[in-house]
Design brief:
single chain, mainly alpha, 3-stranded antiparallel beta sheet, 18 helices, 7 strands
Length: 442
């Protein structure tokens, strides 16, 4: 680690800036599946209606003036929370500095209570997440930060392009980091009570960060839901995984120098089992007569199994052996087919939305010089709304193919239920939860 700090010492290059004629891409952070808040770094802003194929969203509304009000109930809550914070080891001085001038932020409450439903199709999401400008800016960011990223890659054994892709999706390579006061946002959301336990834990973690001296309260800023810095760490994830890459004694993921944030992201991936040199996934072509019952994340086979079935890369070559793998059809048999490896699931720990994982992986490939997917997407389809996803699950249950919970989440259980229903109807059992399947169930 010391050699890395020396490599990242005085004079290393800052992140790439974007030409005025080419405005930066917006942050493209998909929401999480419900119940995943403690396992990923992303903003804890999704409820039960989080989509697995979310739409891009900008952080631009945070630039507007925050609506802050003096609320007596909020002040009483802060006084009550003070004791809980001190019991958790937060000093009175740290608490008082952090809460100086903090008010109830109604803009944060508005964002939390009026989250738009993410119903854009995967291909629409990827059009933005892996746009030509985001690829171009990513290549510039890698070039302009080559020394920093090479040192990080050497220290953590995580490819520079993968770290850069997360940076690009999370903050448009540092251009859109969020400017909301994290203490104020976490306190507002904890006071609101909808997810009090979670946000009180994030608030305690944020206070510990301040107490450790990594940043001061004025500069601890981020998204309205608590994600911070270049790669959008939640406070608890910061405590567990953030690192001081520059050796200045602070883990500073907020400054214009992105080194600590990028190294922290690499550390996170390494801690969850990243395999250096292994792809996240690769596009493949399925042969005629392929057995679609063997698709899905839960079915893992040696690469030799897929090669023996006739699965090939788009150029006709066999799949290289990077370990046990699965065939994933994110848009059914009519869309891109992927063979995914263990690194796919490591990215899932950062954010478990399939769209996010595919976007990070594909953007990293494109930054590294790869081309776009060669197969098409069923662009005539549209994504199901949350109500429609719940209806699909109810109708699958009524038809004798129960997916488990009726939660509007198209996860492995629902995909399997769709696949079994399709097989019963003589359809291609690709597990694609499409509008056509819902209409057939109706």
């Amino acid at each position: 680690m010391r050699s890395m700090q020396q490599a990242l010492g005085i004079g290393f290059i800052l992140f790439a800036t974007t030409a005025a004629a080419d405005p930066p891409d917006r942050s493209v952070r998909p929401e999480m599946r419900d119940g995943q808040e403690t396992t990923v770094l992303m903003a804890a802003s999704a409820g039960a209606n989080a989509s697995l194929r979310p739409a891009p969203r900008a952080e631009a509304p945070e630039i507007r003036a925050q609506a802050r009000v003096s609320d007596p109930g909020f002040r009483r809550w802060i006084e009550g929370f003070r004791g809980r914070a001190q019991s958790a080891g937060i000093s009175a001085a740290t608490f008082d500095r952090a809460f100086r001038d903090v008010e109830l932020n109604t803009r944060v409450l508005e964002r939390d209570r009026n989250q738009s439903e993410f119903t854009r199709a995967l291909w629409d999401y990827l059009d933005t997440a892996v746009s030509d400008s985001r690829v171009r800016n990513g290549r510039e960011a890698v070039r302009d930060n080559r020394r920093t990223l090479q040192a990080i890659e050497s220290a953590y054994r995580v490819e520079a392009e993968v770290v850069a892709a997360i940076w690009g999706l999370e903050s448009a390579y540092g251009e859109v980091r969020g400017d909301t006061n994290i203490i104020e946002a976490m306190a507002t959301l904890a006071y609101d009570g909808r997810r009090r336990r979670f946000f009180e834990a994030q608030l305690i973690a944020a206070l510990r960060i301040l107490q450790a001296g990594d940043v001061d309260a004025r500069h601890m800023t981020g998204s309205w839901a608590g994600a911070m810095g270049h790669t959008q760490f939640m406070p608890t994830s910061f405590l567990d995984y953030a690192v001081d890459a520059t050796g200045d004694g602070r883990r500073d993921i907020w400054s214009d120098n992105p080194a600590d944030a990028l190294a922290s992201t690499a550390n996170y991936l390494r801690r969850f089992g990243w395999t250096y040199g292994q792809p996240w996934g690769m596009e493949v072509v399925l042969p005629r007569g392929f057995d679609f019952s063997q698709t899905g994340e839960r079915i893992k086979r040696d690469v030799s199994h897929w090669n023996a079935m006739g699965v090939r890369l788009p150029d006709g070559r066999p799949i290289p052996d990077h370990g046990r793998s699965s065939i994933l059809l994110p848009a059914g048999a009519a869309g891109v087919a992927l063979v995914i490896f263990d690194n796919f699931h490591v990215i899932e720990r950062y954010n478990p939305a399939d769209a996010y994982v595919i976007a990070v992986g594909h953007l990293s490939d494109r930054i590294g010089g790869g081309g776009p997917f060669q197969a098409g997407w069923p662009r005539g389809d549209r994504a199901l709304s949350f109500d429609e996803r719940q209806e699909l699950q109810r109708r699958l249950t009524a038809a004798g193919f129960p997916p488990g919970a009726v939660d509007g989440i198209i996860g492995p259980n629902t995909i399997d239920a769709v696949r079994r229903y399709q097989a019963s109807q003589g359809l291609i059992p690709d597990g694609y939860a499409s509008l056509a399947i819902l209409q057939r169930l109706r």
